[in-house]
Please model this.
Amino acid sequence: MTQNQHSESQALSDKNILDTSKFQFRKINVNDIEKNEREYHSTIKHIWVQIKKNKAAFYGMIGLIILVLFALIGPLVSPYTYYEQDTNSTNLPPKIQGLDKVEFLPFDGKDANGRDLYAEQHVEKYHWFGTDNLGRDIWTRTWKGAQISIFIGLVAAFMDIAIGVTYGAISGYIGGKTDLFLQRVIEILSSIPNLIVLILFVLIFEPSIWTIILAMSVTGWIGMSRIARGQFMKLKNEEFVLAARSLGVSNLKIIFKHILPNATGAIIVTSMFTVPSAIFFEAFLSFIGLGIPAPQASLGSLVNTGRKFLLTFPYQLFIPAIILSLLILCFYLFSDGLRDAFDPKSE
Model:
């Protein structure tokens, strides 16, 4: 290299040197950086932001909270029990104190012909949803039935998570012949119709809440196990799993401490869809007479009782049917919002 070329290259390098005298330095608080990073990576905050953006999911969550509160508080604020019968107050239409003076609202205690049945039967108390053919308060029975329906849905979802996630985790993580055998077992169970299993359980055991839950759990966990298996097959070859395995971490800890937390999103979303499916299935069983035995009531059994009086006392059918429909709808709307919130592509 000639001297002129060396001088030119030196001049170019001098131009590329930044003048640090024009920089402005500021103090940075390390605690603020860590706090911002924690807020940015907060899963709960991200889910909440996504749900608030999704109006349908947000209103579904609000509706679900309201229905659950009514199911818990409704029977407590009523002076009647869900099993109390009164032959002197049969088939009374809804009547709410204060609203019974408003003519265009259906809470005046009058039937379709304008007859005041409360006055005819000398009933002084109010029945907000009316009474059935045995004189039982429909308000109390509806919210008590909502309690049972929600309880069945939540316990069935818990059973699906406990059985399905464990089964799917073992199948997906171990793989090989173990996975092949376990999947064949699932295929055999999937070929059995759920309705036949439920009917057999009800016929063999006494009809009860736990009989229905156990019957639904026989095959209900299969969908959850497939979701868990897919997640574990995808995550078991990730670098953090390989690092844990190279450090001598046991397979049990890898499954439940390293892989499972990263698969909770799909599991939570699937379980949220399981709850309304279980509620609907229980309502269907009660509707065909295989559900909760009397005097207990679920929303499905109330709909089944009300359909017998559809032409004469339609409120006995429509009230529990509307509550059941709103409950399932709110669960599905909220579940859709959770699914979108856990989607990494969502913004």
In short: The first helix runs from residue 3 to 16. The chain has one domain: 54-92+127-342.
